[in-house]
């Protein structure tokens, strides 16, 4: 699917392109993707963020290696403050 978009340090899912198949949910290595019906209350703001940024960022069509510092960010709360939206 062409629903993943890539920014400088973040991936988003275009909610208009996503077909809700949930195949990406178990593939996410840090459990950051949820089926819409399972989305935790404190993550709902990401729906609009994903919609907005997917209009600006290019589509990513193949899996890429994770960033070298990915393990350093695993489990860190409130990372959205580090989101680089220019991309």
Strand order of the largest sheet: 1-2
Number of strands: 2
Largest sheet: 2 strands, antiparallel
Distance between the termini: 21 Å
Write the element-wise H/E pattern from the N-terminal end onward: EEHH
Helical amount among residues, as a percent range?
10-25%
**Judging by the overall fold, what is the CATH architecture?**
2-Layer Sandwich
How would you describe the overall organization of this protein?
It is a single chain. The protein is of the alpha+beta class and 87 residues long. The protein has a single domain (4-82), classed as Alpha-Beta Plaits (2-Layer Sandwich), CATH 3.30.70.20. Helices cover 16% and strands 7% of the residues. The chain has helices at 45-54, 70-73, and strands at 4-6, 11-13. The protein has a two-stranded antiparallel sheet with strand order 1-2. The radius of gyration is 13 Å and the shape is globular. The mean pLDDT is 88.
Highlighted features:
87 residues, alpha+beta, Alpha-Beta Plaits, two-stranded antiparallel sheet, 2 strands, 16% helix, 7% strand
Furnish the topology, listing elements before pairings.
Elements: E1 4-6, E2 11-13, H1 45-54, H2 70-73
Antiparallel strand pairs: 1-2
Short note summarizing the structure:
With 87 residues, the protein is α+β, with helices and mostly antiparallel strands.
